[in-house]
Amino acid sequence: MSEKQKKPFYKRWWFIVLVIVVILSALGNGEEESQQASDNQELQEVVSKINVEQDEVVADKVIEEPTEKIEVKPDIKKEETTETLSQKNAVSMAKSYLKFTSFSKSGLIEQLEFEGFSTEDATYAVNKIDVDWKEQAVKKAKEYLDFTSFSRKGLIEQLEFEGFTTEEATYAVEQIGF
Q1: 3-state DSSP call for residue 5?
Q2: CA-CA to 173 of 20 to 30 Å: which in 100, 102, 142, 159?
Protein backbone atom coordinates (compact mmCIF):
# COMPACT_ATOMS: atom_id res chain seq x y z
CA MET A 1 0.00 0.00 0.00
CA SER A 2 1.06 3.32 -0.77
CA GLU A 3 0.88 5.96 1.78
CA LYS A 4 -1.40 8.77 1.04
CA GLN A 5 0.54 11.91 0.96
CA LYS A 6 -1.04 14.76 2.80
CA LYS A 7 -1.25 18.06 1.00
CA PRO A 8 0.32 20.96 2.78
CA PHE A 9 -2.35 23.13 4.50
CA TYR A 10 -1.78 26.04 2.10
CA LYS A 11 -2.87 23.81 -0.81
CA ARG A 12 -6.07 22.64 0.80
CA TRP A 13 -9.42 23.96 -0.44
CA TRP A 14 -10.55 25.45 2.90
CA PHE A 15 -7.34 27.45 3.24
CA ILE A 16 -7.69 28.86 -0.28
CA VAL A 17 -11.30 29.90 0.44
CA LEU A 18 -10.20 31.52 3.70
CA VAL A 19 -7.48 33.51 1.93
CA ILE A 20 -9.94 34.68 -0.74
CA VAL A 21 -12.41 35.82 1.95
CA VAL A 22 -9.67 37.71 3.82
CA ILE A 23 -8.50 39.41 0.61
CA LEU A 24 -12.04 40.41 -0.35
CA SER A 25 -12.63 41.77 3.17
CA ALA A 26 -9.46 43.79 3.01
CA LEU A 27 -10.45 45.22 -0.35
CA GLY A 28 -13.93 45.99 0.95
CA ASN A 29 -12.57 47.83 4.00
CA GLY A 30 -10.17 49.72 1.83
CA GLU A 31 -13.02 50.88 -0.35
CA GLU A 32 -15.06 51.88 2.73
CA GLU A 33 -12.14 53.81 4.16
CA SER A 34 -11.52 55.59 0.88
CA GLN A 35 -15.28 56.32 0.63
CA GLN A 36 -15.22 57.63 4.20
CA ALA A 37 -12.21 59.80 3.43
CA SER A 38 -13.98 61.08 0.33
CA ASP A 39 -17.13 61.82 2.34
CA ASN A 40 -15.09 63.64 4.99
CA GLN A 41 -13.41 65.71 2.29
CA GLU A 42 -16.79 66.64 0.79
CA LEU A 43 -18.13 67.55 4.23
CA GLN A 44 -15.15 69.79 4.92
CA GLU A 45 -15.65 71.51 1.56
CA VAL A 46 -19.34 72.12 2.29
CA VAL A 47 -18.58 73.53 5.75
CA SER A 48 -15.87 75.73 4.29
CA LYS A 49 -18.24 76.97 1.60
CA ILE A 50 -20.92 77.75 4.20
CA ASN A 51 -18.41 79.67 6.31
CA VAL A 52 -17.31 81.68 3.29
CA GLU A 53 -20.93 82.44 2.35
CA GLN A 54 -21.68 83.55 5.92
CA ASP A 55 -18.63 85.81 5.89
CA GLU A 56 -19.81 87.31 2.60
CA VAL A 57 -23.30 87.91 4.01
CA VAL A 58 -21.86 89.59 7.09
CA ALA A 59 -19.56 91.66 4.90
CA ASP A 60 -22.54 92.69 2.72
CA LYS A 61 -24.50 93.75 5.79
CA VAL A 62 -21.60 95.78 7.11
CA ILE A 63 -21.29 97.58 3.80
CA GLU A 64 -25.06 98.19 3.62
CA GLU A 65 -25.18 99.95 7.01
CA PRO A 66 -25.63 103.71 6.76
CA THR A 67 -22.61 105.83 7.40
CA GLU A 68 -24.58 108.69 8.97
CA LYS A 69 -24.75 108.92 12.73
CA ILE A 70 -27.85 107.50 14.31
CA GLU A 71 -28.84 108.62 17.76
CA VAL A 72 -29.37 105.63 19.96
CA LYS A 73 -31.76 106.21 22.83
CA PRO A 74 -31.09 104.16 25.92
CA ASP A 75 -33.70 101.50 26.55
CA ILE A 76 -35.91 101.86 29.54
CA LYS A 77 -34.47 99.54 32.11
CA LYS A 78 -36.36 96.33 31.89
CA GLU A 79 -37.00 94.63 35.16
CA GLU A 80 -34.72 91.65 35.20
CA THR A 81 -36.81 88.64 35.89
CA THR A 82 -34.98 86.34 38.19
CA GLU A 83 -38.22 85.03 39.58
CA THR A 84 -38.09 81.31 40.25
CA LEU A 85 -40.87 78.96 39.24
CA SER A 86 -41.80 78.52 42.89
CA GLN A 87 -42.05 82.29 43.33
CA LYS A 88 -44.22 82.62 40.21
CA ASN A 89 -46.50 79.88 41.49
CA ALA A 90 -46.69 81.48 44.92
CA VAL A 91 -47.68 84.82 43.34
CA SER A 92 -50.34 83.08 41.27
CA MET A 93 -51.73 81.22 44.28
CA ALA A 94 -51.75 84.38 46.40
CA LYS A 95 -53.81 86.16 43.74
CA SER A 96 -56.18 83.19 43.56
CA TYR A 97 -56.72 83.19 47.31
CA LEU A 98 -57.48 86.91 47.31
CA LYS A 99 -60.12 86.40 44.62
CA PHE A 100 -61.80 83.83 46.86
CA THR A 101 -61.54 85.42 50.30
CA SER A 102 -59.77 88.16 52.21
CA PHE A 103 -56.50 87.82 54.09
CA SER A 104 -54.15 89.89 56.16
CA LYS A 105 -50.62 90.12 54.88
CA SER A 106 -49.27 87.72 57.50
CA GLY A 107 -52.32 85.47 57.12
CA LEU A 108 -51.72 85.13 53.39
CA ILE A 109 -48.06 84.31 53.98
CA GLU A 110 -49.09 81.65 56.48
CA GLN A 111 -51.63 80.21 54.03
CA LEU A 112 -48.99 79.98 51.28
CA GLU A 113 -46.62 78.30 53.73
CA PHE A 114 -49.41 75.85 54.61
CA GLU A 115 -49.67 75.09 50.88
CA GLY A 116 -45.99 74.09 50.93
CA PHE A 117 -44.22 77.24 49.79
CA SER A 118 -41.11 78.29 51.66
CA THR A 119 -41.32 81.36 53.91
CA GLU A 120 -39.12 83.21 51.43
CA ASP A 121 -41.32 82.38 48.42
CA ALA A 122 -44.53 83.13 50.33
CA THR A 123 -43.17 86.47 51.53
CA TYR A 124 -41.91 87.26 48.02
CA ALA A 125 -45.36 86.56 46.57
CA VAL A 126 -47.23 88.68 49.10
CA ASN A 127 -44.81 91.57 48.59
CA LYS A 128 -45.03 91.20 44.80
CA ILE A 129 -48.82 91.57 44.51
CA ASP A 130 -50.58 94.91 44.80
CA VAL A 131 -53.00 94.65 47.72
CA ASP A 132 -54.83 97.23 49.79
CA TRP A 133 -54.55 95.53 53.19
CA LYS A 134 -57.01 97.98 54.78
CA GLU A 135 -59.58 96.97 52.19
CA GLN A 136 -58.82 93.32 52.91
CA ALA A 137 -59.53 94.04 56.60
CA VAL A 138 -62.89 95.59 55.66
CA LYS A 139 -63.80 92.52 53.59
CA LYS A 140 -62.75 90.16 56.39
CA ALA A 141 -64.79 92.15 58.94
CA LYS A 142 -67.87 91.86 56.69
CA GLU A 143 -67.24 88.10 56.32
CA TYR A 144 -67.17 87.73 60.10
CA LEU A 145 -70.33 89.76 60.58
CA ASP A 146 -72.11 87.66 57.94
CA PHE A 147 -71.26 84.61 60.03
CA THR A 148 -71.76 85.84 63.59
CA SER A 149 -72.13 88.94 65.78
CA PHE A 150 -69.26 90.87 67.33
CA SER A 151 -68.80 93.89 69.53
CA ARG A 152 -66.60 96.62 68.12
CA LYS A 153 -63.74 95.61 70.42
CA GLY A 154 -64.29 91.91 69.73
CA LEU A 155 -64.21 92.44 65.96
CA ILE A 156 -61.01 94.48 66.16
CA GLU A 157 -59.41 91.76 68.30
CA GLN A 158 -60.56 89.07 65.88
CA LEU A 159 -59.08 90.96 62.92
CA GLU A 160 -55.83 91.43 64.83
CA PHE A 161 -55.86 87.70 65.59
CA GLU A 162 -56.14 87.12 61.83
CA GLY A 163 -52.94 89.13 61.37
CA PHE A 164 -54.23 92.58 60.53
CA THR A 165 -52.52 95.50 62.22
CA THR A 166 -54.42 97.53 64.81
CA GLU A 167 -54.60 100.36 62.27
CA GLU A 168 -56.06 98.06 59.58
CA ALA A 169 -58.54 96.48 62.01
CA THR A 170 -59.71 99.84 63.35
CA TYR A 171 -60.08 101.19 59.81
CA ALA A 172 -62.19 98.17 58.86
CA VAL A 173 -64.50 98.52 61.84
CA GLU A 174 -64.97 102.22 61.12
CA GLN A 175 -65.74 101.52 57.44
CA ILE A 176 -68.54 99.07 58.28
CA GLY A 177 -70.16 101.53 60.68
CA PHE A 178 -69.08 100.47 64.15
Answers
A1: coil
A2: 100
